[in-house]
Amino acid sequence: MSYTVLARRYRSQTFDDVVGQDVIAQTLKNAIQGGKVAHAYLFCGTRGVGKTTMARILAKSLNCLAAKDATTSPCLKCDSCIAINAGEDIDVVEIDGASNRGIDNIRELRQNAIYRPARARYKIYIVDEVHMLTTEAFNALLKILEEPPAHVKFIFATTEPNKVLPTIQSRCQRFDFASIGPQVIAKQLDAILKIEKITFEPDFLPQLARLANGSMRDALSLLDQLISTGQQPLTAAMLEQLLGRPDAENLNLLIQHIAAADPAQTLKSIEILLNQGQSASQIAESLVEMFRDMMVLKTAGDGTDILLLSCSSATTLNQLSQTFDIPWLVFAITTLERLRWTLRNSETARALLEATLLRLAMSEHFISLDALTEQLRGAGGSIPASADIKKKTIISSGNPPLFQAAAAKTPAVQQPIPSGQTEPGSIGDIWRQLVEKMQAQNSQTGGFLSQARPGQLRNNTLTLRFSSPLALDMIKKKDDQLCSILKDILGREITVQYESAKPEDTAAATQPSAPAPAGARINRQQQEQALSDPAVQMIIRGLSANPVQIDRIEELEPPRHETEETDV
Predict the structure, then answer these.
(1) How far apart are alpha carbons 456 and 463 in whole angstroms?
(2) Domain ranges of the chain
(3) H helices within 69-215, ranges in order?
(4) Is the pLDDT score of 509 beyond 50?
(5) pLDDT given at position 517
(6) Would you call 553 helix, strand, or coil by DSSP?
């Protein structure tokens, strides 16, 4: 006894039965009722969304022998309707474009099209995967497609409309079939399972509908596979086992260990999943789906209809998502998706997967750029740390350290004024105030001024050395404004002497005796020096970031006791 698969047994028979394509079905019904049926249609869409089914329904509506004219409700009992359903009608010719793609096949079609149908009203040609036709075959089809005999109708179906020549598309009415939503698929599967008297658990249908990816035929094929096992009730675990997907319980444990920042248990969970036969790519894909569900739940709330989840799945995801915030979930999704692309051409898939998940598990060891900047500026920011996390001092040999973690900020050492006179502050304080006031009055001039290195303040004369000739020329033009600001700071007339720094003096520009003010812009050479530092390169590569602006910040004095160096 032959068995008919569910995808054929429950194929839609009329326009009212069509699932997920209501707009297209209604448009075709209106065209039939108004007597405005076109001579050629182009149905576009992904696999399993109803293109061929809609073509057969349209053919039955036009050729139903029980009606005097074209009808929107074919009888499904006459010889024509039965033959069309079976694909055996002599007046409705179904052609596979992949195996009949040459110009000779199209010439034969043109020769046969001039003959009237044997018993029906129209001779209908349904060409599936029409994009597979050659360019010569398309060109041979143009004339008859534009001006066919009155008794001929063409219906083309394709999954790749971009490969169909524009000259062909312009001669057809095009309909784009959308992917079927998981809610619609789940509702249809529920009705079919009730008719078949097959029991299933609540978690089963949402999971199956999501795995169908918008294709009703794929959903019915998967359901057929599960039914053939002979086990009831149908469960989500059976579906995961059939498709070789990671076990949901083990995935939940893996996410819990990542949330708990437990590297050892994270590696153990990965080991369990890999030993079950899962590939690194499958694990990454499943994690992306779960993190995406958490992101939607936290963003749109529990009552959102964006997700199709059972009550137990929604509860589990809600509990897991409490330990993550939305930015972290976005970061995790993009990181894992980048990993999936990398795994395609990698021979060290396991190592890459473990490294990526450990990075996510240890994300609390990292500090945001804003918090880091605040801490280094001494603005009260601090690195968020748990009891198990130790501070790390990054020291770059040969260059001054860019980042140094310390328990507290040490006050800056005041530099004496070389003039021998008693001043209210050090040359560093005076220089800082000078640059800040100049930037407040003119940001461009302040930027040029910040490129200078202050020298001595002696006999009411301040020496400024410039390594950039352009900055020197620009500041000379603002001499009056500069002297006015110095008078406001020191309370007396000050003259400025300008000098060009010698090449051998460039390295001395960052000496503690004349530091640049916090927040001041640095010159190109100093920018290149900062960007070449290994610590900076590590941070940039780790964050996949691009430097936008580089400012000088007030450096903290290194701790006077020995600092323990540990991993971040």
Answers:
(1) 6
(2) 6-176, 182-243, 248-364, 427-530
(3) 79-86, 103-113, 135-146, 166-169, 182-196, 204-211
(4) no
(5) 54
(6) coil
CATH class in words for 427-530: alpha beta
For residue 335, give both structure tokens: 């990181």
With pLDDT > 90 as the criterion, what percentage of the chain qualifies?
33
Specify the 3-state DSSP secondary structure of 450.
coil
Distances (CA, A) of 255 to 252, 258, 260, 403, 568: 5, 5, 9, 32, 21
Q: What is the CATH number of domain 6-176?
A: 3.40.50.300
Query: What is the reported pLDDT for 406?
Result: 32
Structure-token pair, residue 485: 């600001």
Question: Could you please report the per-residue DSSP string of 271-314?
Answer: HHHHHTT--HHHHHHHHHHHHHHHHHHHHH-TT-SSS---HHHH
Scanning the structure block, which residue is given the tokens 């780790």? 542
Tell me if domain 6-176 and domain 427-530 are identical in fold: no
* Residues with Cβ within 8 Å of residue 132, at least 6 apart in sequence: 97, 98, 101
Q: Would you say 535 and 394 are in contact if contact means Cβ atoms under 8 Å apart?
A: yes
The SS3 call for residue 202 is coil
**Backbone phi and psi for residue 267, each to the nearest 5 degrees, phi listed first:** -65, -35
The pLDDT, as a whole number, for residue 407 is 32
pLDDT, position 514: 47
The pTM of this model reads: 0.60
**Would you tell me the crossing angle of helices 479-490 and 469-476 to the nearest 10 degrees?**
70
Beta-strand pair 461-466/92-96: unpaired
* pLDDT value for 399: 37
CATH number 1.20.272.10 is the correct assignment for the domain at 248-364: yes
Which of the following CATH numbers is that of domain 182-243: 3.40.50.1820, 3.60.15.10, 3.40.50.2000, 1.10.8.60? 1.10.8.60
What would the pLDDT profile of 173-225 be if each residue is shown by its tens digit? Answer: 999 999 998 889 999 999 999 999 999 988 888 889 888 888 999 999 999 99
Indicate if the alpha-carbon torsion angle 404, 405, 407, 408 is positive or negative. positive
Helix (H, G, I), strand (E, B) or coil at 463: strand
The tens digit of pLDDT for each residue in 427-482 reads 777 888 888 888 788 777 777 788 888 877 878 888 888 877 777 877 888 888 88
Please give the structure tokens belonging to residue 393.
């001092």
Strand-by-strand arrangement of the 452-458 sheet: 452-458, 461-466, 495-500
The token pair that represents 453 in the structure block: 């290195």
471-497 mean pLDDT:
84
For all residues of the chain together, what is the average pLDDT? 79
pLDDT of residue 298: 87
